[in-house]
Design a protein that fits this description.
The protein is of the alpha/beta class and about 450 residues long. The chain has a single domain, classed as TIM Barrel, CATH 3.20.20.140. Helix content is about 50%, strand content about 10%. The protein has 18 helices and 11 strands. The chain has a 6-stranded parallel β-sheet. A 3-stranded parallel β-sheet has the order 1-2-4. Helix 1 packs parallel to helix 18, helix 6 crosses helix 17 and helix 16 crosses helix 17.
């Protein structure tokens, strides 16, 4: 019975059953449906070299985490970066497989994720060769493979990240009004350049037919708002997002370009979000190109200013803010901030804190401060297949935290039921996000 009081001996099984059974709405990924093209040769016989739907063994192995990691064991003095980037994708994957999976134990979280994914797809990474695994993926139909990945990860909806200032992606939206119509995916309008480099963004907008200027005159404000409204409508976007450096402050500090970005935020982005009832998501702490030779793997993080978040929440109470931060040092202050502002929803363990020890620590701390009123995880998957391991590993970690916290609660005298557990799990894995996005 759903209202039966649980005994402590039944707690662990009840929690993990609830966590396993609850479908997830993954609020932040960089994955795409086949309509955006796939560079992977597959069962449909179609391949798009510039396609945005990344999947398959070679993409898994050449994820930027693993590229950075392989340079720990084969340094650039032995394999110069330029030589690596001249290799084919398959050659890069062969190199990483050899050095991280055959000559070293794949114990890092990024490597373990590949093992989990392959295993759950029915492949044996201990015996199957890369050619065998490549044949497996080549036989798959991309759309059916998405269904399989969503089934294995128990994800009911995938949220894309759609970068309107990327020429490849922008061109696909303009060429086909239905490119984003796949019901398994929701769109998010990503607009980093408008805050980080308004002068360059203004040039782009002007070339696209919007009468904007670098000074952000009154007319330019309305034109920039028109740009956002039109792209929100085109994408049917459910929120607007940016990734920001640790130097992001509000009110702005620094040079004129920084103040221009703040003006765009205050006069353009947040008013349009409020008008549409859409959350504004900030992922704060990214330091770009610390090692340019690694390309996407050359970024790192820095400690950011949490008061920028609280100042925004206070100054714009009509707006809703999703926020995550890149450095462990920021997460306690961010959770405390969420206790003070109902228009702030903290989410996920992003990038370098997406490791088991830190997910465990951050989830426990958030639960102790916020109860169930946060979003514990998002996948941030760039390769479709990564959804499998990201949610397998995260469900285990979230479940373990819940078991311990419920045990503490029961010891304090609370009578816990299975229905309460299911309600809490649904909030954290689905409804907190869905309800925060409601207009």
């Amino acid at each position: 019975m759903s209202d039966t009081i649980l005994q402590l001996s039944d707690l662990e099984a009840a929690v993990f059953q609830a966590v396993a059974a609850q479908p997830v709405v993954d609020m932040h990924t960089h994955t795409y449906p086949p309509s955006f093209g796939t560079p992977v040769p597959n069962g449909t016989g179609q391949a798009d070299p510039d396609g945005l739907m990344l999947w398959g063994i070679d993409e898994l192995l050449t994820y930027h985490y693993l590229i950075a990691e392989v340079y720990r064991v084969v340094p650039a003095t032995q394999l110069p970066y330029e030589q690596f980037w001249q290799m084919t994708r398959a050659q890069q994957a062969d190199h990483i497989w050899k050095h991280l999976f055959q000559e070293h134990t794949p114990i890092s979280e990024a490597c373990r994720g590949v093992i989990t994914t392959l295993n759950k797809l029915g492949l044996d990474p201990s015996s199957d060769s890369l050619p065998q695994m490549r044949r497996f993926f080549a036989e798959q139909d991309p759309s059916r493979f998405i269904d399989r990945v969503m089934e294995l990860s128990h994800v009911e909806k995938i949220t894309m990240t759609n970068e309107v200032f990327d020429a490849n992606e922008r061109g696909r939206w303009l060429a086909d009004p239905n490119v984003g119509a796949d019901p398994r995916f929701s769109a998010v309008l990503r607009i980093d350049r408008m805050i980080l480099d308004w002068a360059a963004a203004a040039q782009d907008l002007h070339s696209w037919g919007y009468e904007v200027d670098a000074e952000l005159s009154d007319g330019a404000v309305e034109e920039a708002r028109r740009f956002l409204r039109e792209w929100l409508d085109r994408l049917k976007a459910i929120y607007i997002a940016v990734s920001l450096p640790p130097e992001f402050h509000f009110p702005a500090q620094g040079d004129a370009s920084t103040h221009a970005g703040q003006a765009v935020l205050e006069k353009v982005i947040l008013p349009v979000c409020a008008e549409r009832g859409l959350p504004f998501a900030m992922m704060i702490g990214a330091v770009r190109s610390v090692n340019p030779g690694l390309r996407g793997g050359g970024d790192m993080g820095g400690v950011a200013d949490v008061t920028a978040v609280t100042n925004l929440c206070a100054a714009f109470p009509q707006n809703k803010f999703f926020v995550t931060m890149l450095m462990r040092e920021n997460h306690h202050a961010l959770a405390v901030a969420a206790r003070k502002f109902g228009n702030l929803m903290v989410f996920g363990c992003w990038w370098f804190v997406n490791n088991p020890s830190l997910i465990d620590e951050i989830t426990r701390m958030r639960m102790e401060l916020l109860g169930t009123s946060f979003i514990p995880q998002h996948s941030d998957a760039r390769i479709l297949d990564q959804l499998v391991y990201k949610w397998d590993h995260s469900r285990r970690l979230i479940g373990r935290v819940l078991v311990d916290k419920y045990a503490d609660l029961m010891a304090a005298g609370w009578k816990l039921t299975r229905e309460q557990i299911r309600r809490d799990v649904r909030l954290m894995l689905r409804d907190n996000f869905v309800k925060f996005c409601e207009r």
